[in-house]
Amino acid sequence: MRKKLIAANWKMYKTPSEALSFVEAFLPLVAGHTRDEIVLFPSITSLATVISRVRGTNVAAGAQTMHWANEGAYTGHTSPVMLTTLGATHVLIGHSENRQYDNETDERINLKVKAAISHGLTPLLCIGEQLDERESGKTEDVLASQLAGALAGFPKEHADKLVVAYEPVWAIGTGLTATPEIAEETHVIVRNHMAQHLGDTANEIRILYGGSVKPENSRSLLEQPNIDGALVGGASLKADSFAAIVKY
Length: 248
Ligand code: PGA
Description:
Blueprint: E1 5-9, H1 16-30, E2 37-41, H2 44-54, E3 59-63, H3 80-86, E4 90-93, H4 96-101, H5 106-118, E5 122-127, H6 131-135, H7 139-151, E6 163-166, H8 180-198, E7 206-210, H9 215-222, E8 229-232, H10 239-246
Parallel strand pairs: 1-2, 1-8, 2-3, 3-4, 4-5, 5-6, 6-7, 7-8
Helix pairs in contact: 1-2, 1-10, 5-7, 7-8, 9-10
The structure holds 2-phosphoglycolic acid.
């Protein structure tokens, strides 16, 4: 059984005090909820605040990206060591916004995924096709190539630690959600390609869906057998809305 993971991607929203207010309101709403794993991804300036408040609860926290090196002359970046020292347990890698705006290439994503694993951080590897790619029938090729790039040389014995987030780019922040059928069908494709790289362990890897997940559609998506959680942007910014998704 794959325990579902429901994650909040706050992107570039919330100051530390706003993040703390969210956590204060959110924790009572999900107290005792152990059916699913819950992870918050605040911006880097709020991460320490969030981690110290969720410590010892059923909620974990991680970073939205990181560098792969332990340290070095990389102005503006954060290393895996810095994250683990802070108490972060998870890290988003290869979000489509980073691929689009921050020159996040498959090669860099590959280094980051492997660095996360070697530091004991759970990587949430994000993949997804653009609208024109879906419309021209290239979805499977795009996902296969993103997976091949990200997973080159990935240590198979750690495959169960990997989490993948399938986020069709056309569904992110647009209000357009993939139907549960389209999402399920695509998750099966993703799982089959992961099996090519990682063998049978692919059955243990959680594949989250992301892209306009909200309280109204979370249940129909999360009921699908190959949808093992959700990566939620806009609808995760309010405690009651994110709690409703967690308790779909
Ligand atoms: P959204 O974002 O829920 O606002 O579509 C999801 C994401 O980018 O992870």
